[in-house]
Amino acid sequence: MVNETNKKRIVIKIGSSSLTSLHGEISRRKLEKLVDEVVRLKDDGHEVLLVSSGAVAAGYRKLGCLSRPESLPEKQAAASIGQGLLMESYSDLFLSHGYMGSQILITRSDFSDENRYNNARNTINVLLERGIIPIVNENDTITIDRLKFGDNDTLSAKVAGLVDADDLIILSDIDGLYDADPRKDENAQLLDRVHEITPEIEAAAGDPGSEVGTGGMKSKIDAFKIAMASGISSFLGKASTDGIVYNAVYGKAVGTYFEPTSEQENLNQKKQWIAFNSGPEGDVTIDHRARETIVGMKESLLPMNVHHVSGRFKKGAVVRIHDLEGEEVGLGVVNYSSEQLKKMIGLTEPELESYELAAIESKDLVCHLEVSLPVGV
Ligand SMILES: Nc1ncnc2c1ncn2[C@@H]1O[C@H](COP(=O)(O)OP(=O)(O)O)[C@@H](O)[C@H]1O
Ligand SMILES: N[C@@H](CCC(=O)OP(=O)(O)O)C(=O)O
């Protein structure tokens, strides 16, 4: 039994391929196995949040489709039927063990709005602290393609960051990360520990292994990058292995452990929101001197170092910061609107001194070289 000091907050993500039968429908047996493992962790005193796929798989037959649909409206309609059925199964199973599940459906735009992001955190904290098991999925029925998380891997890492989890466990149909796509290279080796996502690892990560999987290893690697930058230990293992979740929490499972190093700066929650969720609204180009001070010395960006501004944004928006070569340096929250910043360009230093604030305060600045931000997440 754990006590308050070794009690963990654990986020578990299970993919469609691990919850479905060969025909692509939800497998009650697989759901039961997962619930049994979560119950063991709850009985030990841990807090557990599930990120579960499976809404489309649980609903497409009831919609009248013979196989998993391809078109977006049909997938959304299937998810509308299936999400309720999936939750009913989870609720029944958890209740039979004396635990309560709760549903949370999230869209990307919920996370790009800082107030809604913070509100989601407050709600989930109440649920976890009261022993409930929140069950999170993307709100498939209403999200439009362009604005979808799409796969639940990056969603699970962002949720783990949101609730300040200790561990993120991603379950899949494979027993860990290999140094090459195992379907293409029969000599591919399982990596048991990863401290850094190198370009070689990125290159080895391939597409989904089944018709029902969405993100493949690529989206899992994006997820592990987010978790590592947020200081969260992660694990990737095979959902069908007996005791996989329970053993992973205690460091005894076969699979890949992703461990953030102590030298790496862990992004605080505000910086996590800026880096992974905010959705930048404009671009600011800075000169070489500024690049050195904000990246190397981690100082604020001053208005006189702003070279060019594009896009229309208000004070408080998140913007991308580029150097003069066009390379993206990082992201930050601006203290001036685009109109004000544009007026400042070309002013002399004494003229600019009357402005008290930095263009971007160092506390609201996230640099690419400081943490390896996943590109395109
Ligand atoms: N380097 C790699 N290591 C392990 N699996 C890989 C790698 N590259 C591609 N894959 C494939 O990724 C699949 C898991 O992703 P996916 O099908 O999306 O599953 P899930 O539904 O669990 O998210 C594996 O079955 C495997 O075939
Ligand atoms: N949100 C979708 C699942 C998306 C999906 O399949 O993601 P993944 O399990 O990461 O391959 C659903 O519930 O059907």
UniProtKB/TrEMBL annotation:
Protein purpose: Catalyzes the transfer of a phosphate group to glutamate to form L-glutamate 5-phosphate.
Species lineage: Bacteria, Bacillati, Bacillota, Bacilli, Bacillales
SMART domains this protein is in? Answer: PUA
UniProt key word Cytoplasm: yes
Know the name of this protein?
A: Glutamate 5-kinase
Q: In which pathway does it act?
A: Amino-acid biosynthesis; L-proline biosynthesis; L-glutamate 5-semialdehyde from L-glutamate: step 1/2
The family note in this entry says: Belongs to the glutamate 5-kinase family.
Under CDD domains, the record lists: AAK_G5K_ProB, PUA_G5K
Where in this chain does the record put each PUA domain?
282-367
List of residues binding ATP = 13, 172-173, 214-220
| Catalyzed reactions | L-glutamate + ATP = L-glutamyl 5-phosphate + ADP
* Protein residues bound to substrate: 53, 140, 152
Any single GO molecular-function term of the entry would be: glutamate 5-kinase activity
Q: Which UniProt keywords apply?
A: Amino-acid biosynthesis, ATP-binding, Cytoplasm, Kinase, Nucleotide-binding, Proline biosynthesis, Transferase
> Known NCBIfam families for this protein?
proB
